[in-house]
Amino acid sequence: MNTRPLTPLLALILLVALVVTLFPIFWIVMTALKPPTDWNAAPAIWIPSEPTLINFLTLFDPEAIGAFGVGGISESATAAVFGSILTSTCATLISVGIGFFAAIGLSRYTRVNRFTPLFILSGRMFPPAAIAVPFVIIFSAIQLIDTYVGLIAIYVAITLPFATWMLKSFVDEVPREVEEAAMIDGQSRLMAHLTVTAPLIKGGLFATTLFIFILNWSEFLFALVLSYSNIETIPIRLAKYVTATAGTLFGVQAALAVLAMAPLIVAGFLIQKHLARGMTFGAVKR
Amino acid sequence: MPQEIAISDLKGTRLGVPAADRTSAPSPTGAQRAARKRARFARGLAAPGMVISVFVLVVPLLVALAMSFTTWSPTRGSLLDAGFEGLFNYEELLVYDTRFVEAVARTLTLSVICLSLELAIGLGLAVIFLREFKGKSVLFSTLLTPMMVMPVVVGYTFWMLFQSNGPINQISMILFGTAPEWFRSAFFAWIVVIVTEVWHWTPLFFLIMLSGLNSLPENPIRAAVILGASPRQVFWRVVLPMLKPVIIVALVIRAMEIVKLFDEVFILTRGGPSTSTETISLYIYKLAFQDFQLAYGAAAAFLVLIGTLLMVHFLLAPVRDQLLGEPR
Fold first, then answer.
1. A230: Cα separation from own chain's centroid
2. Which of B153, B164, B284 to mutate to test the interface with A (most CBs of A within 10 A)?
3. Residues 19 to 48 of B: which have CB under 8 A from any A CB?
4. How far apart are CA A162 and CA A124, in angstroms?
């Protein structure tokens, strides 16, 4: 289309958009660096007088903040960080692995009828608050409640549609003649897909993995209702900090929030070319 | 897209079998065997996903559906002994439960407000991004940041920003000499929820709209320009109609997400003050996990599911072919 330069008005709009986008992130990072005296100061302090990492230390050693004469947090966030890494990593790898085969099946061997997308999407339409109800009952009965295995199983199930459709859109772009050539050379179907198709969509597999990781790492509701005392993830810990301390430990809460979003922002930047595809189940390609 | 394969699987005719199979299957019986093998392989590929979907989505959904016809709650013994109450819960919800109806209305209102703002701002920014300027790619990445932040953290961050001692009130005091207690009044709590949602998800619209604009065919636009259309006319009469499928896909996906909106509101307001910011997901959560009315909550969820399915089905109708990846 037309490639005209920016007018001053448009440049101003972009500047406003930039400031609005970054301000909340700036604020939470600054709060994470504030010593306790700056946390709830009036008027609010924008840039900490003496930046400190004490809030991050306190997350793993609840007593550390005592050096500032403030009562520590009741529990450390170590278990939550471990839980988040464990569940997100396992669930992501399983989901992408299964999704890859499903994507090959959908792209190469199945006729997609007009109700297929609706069927796949319907799993995403049901309010999680409600699908969580039968999960709690079933998982209680088979002793999977409050276990990482149970949480991972659910994460695989809820991210599988995303993984499948995102990968399908990548497989669709590989000409089937390449696989067929390998099959004529005597490779089995399975080997042809693993040794020919998979390497050709390497970038797609990487993007899908990070995208599914973002979804798993962010999940809150299922972790909330399916964990009692044995398991914990970062979002759950953050919610607990906010309730338990009634909002007085701003710095420590903000430190956990920064820790929670940092990996996602990095992952997001790495796959930004493919974000639209992931978010729209492959409907928007570029 | 897969074309003739499904039919050839059924008939087992040699003609429909792709080249790879033809070479390895010289006789008709060989072709049949190859087709059968192929079908078995296809089933094998789909099996793990199917098994997971059935056990982790279909079974719980059926349990929830069965439960929604009872008045069972965990304090009343086993679910298996619960009596069938027909549509009792559904009647309660639709006829007597004003809190449910209000939560639905509130969620719909929120969708309309948020989606309009997100679409307008996202599309506007995307149009600006059609121009060339310095630092475009850096700015593009930066503007996408909010959608990568997890919802709980977004909720927490805006909760911080709107504290009475927070920066928003500080700015408000300087500009207007007064600042509200954001979470104490229904009206202001609503504004916080809307601002949070719009900040979080406008980048998605921006991203999808820009993808859409960049992949539009150039010829109709050139033709319109040559025929003397003003830039405004080109945008409203040519570009926007061509962008319609992309806009609908974005709206459908976001509408589905807003129906499920839970995390941010849970952290920001917990539905308060009173029930004034209670979304449908939050209400169902409270029914099931605070009041332990599991059966009633399941019924509410099914009503929401049916409503969402209908909405999505009709919204997607004009663009279904494109979603399926078939040439239009």
1. 22
2. B153
3. 19-20, 23, 38-39, 41-42, 45-46, 48
4. 9
A10-58 confidence digits (pLDDT tens):
889 999 999 999 999 999 999 888 887 777 777 777 888 888 888 888 8
Domain A78-239+263-279: which CATH number of 1.10.3720.10, 2.160.20.10, 1.20.210.10, 3.30.70.890: 1.10.3720.10
- Mutate which of A88, A125, A176, A237 to test chain B, going by most B C-beta atoms within 10 A? A125
**Rounded Cα–Cα distance for residues A185 and A179 (Å):** 10
- Is residue B222's pLDDT more than 70? yes
Domain ranges (residues) in chain A: 78-239+263-279
pLDDT tens per residue, range A110-168: 766 555 655 666 666 667 776 788 888 888 888 888 889 989 988 998 888 888 888 88
Helix axes B98-128, B186-214, angle to 10 degrees: 40
Give the gap in angstroms from C-alpha B229 to the nearest C-alpha of chain A: 13
Higher pLDDT, B84 or B163: B163
Mean local confidence (pLDDT), B79-95: 75
Cβ contact B196:B277 at 8 Å: no
Nearest CA in chain B to A153: B56
CA gap B308, B108 in Å, rounded:
11
Residue among B46, B132, B281 minimizing CB distance to A5: B132
pTM of the complete model: 0.84
For B93-323, CATH number out of 3.30.420.150, 3.40.50.2300, 1.10.10.10, 1.10.3720.10 equals 1.10.3720.10
Tokens of B160: 């911080």
The beta-carbon neighbor of B285 closest among A108, A129, A286 is A129
